[in-house]
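Thread title: Can someone regenerate the structure for this chain?

I was given the following input by a collaborator and told the matching structure tokens would be attached. They weren't. Posting the sequence so someone can regenerate them.
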Amino acid sequence: MIEERDRGGESPCFAHLVDDLDAHPSPVRVVASNTILYTDRWSEVTAFYRTGLGLRPTMERDWFIEFELYAGVHVSVADASRASIVSGDGAGLTLSWRVPDSLACRRQLVQNGVAVSPIQKRWGAPGFFVTDPAGNRIEFWSERQ
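Best answer:
Regenerated them for you:
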């Protein structure tokens, strides 16, 4: 059973799906995560994450930038022309990020000049979508309100 202290004081929408994690330990213990987006639109995509979304770079190279979402969780942008992996052009990918307040987050992104979808309710939780210049879809959602 997951204790409140294990959730950092939060109550995720889907906590009921993982209540028995301790009873079924996984052989894979992930302690950090980094999703790497390979793109042919390097300048536009890095500007979007840095300026449009306001993410803080934690590591920068001339062809690779890592942005911190929160401690131990990152999203990186790599210049596909300098990598061994080709651009995915957003095919089959949605980054889904839970934020404290999706309405306030949406307002801030609009102020930053980011094109956002209308607020929608999915599974009872309010959220919206943005698409980065490479075609990667990002969902922002918050707890049921």
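The two ends are 25 Å apart (CA to CA).
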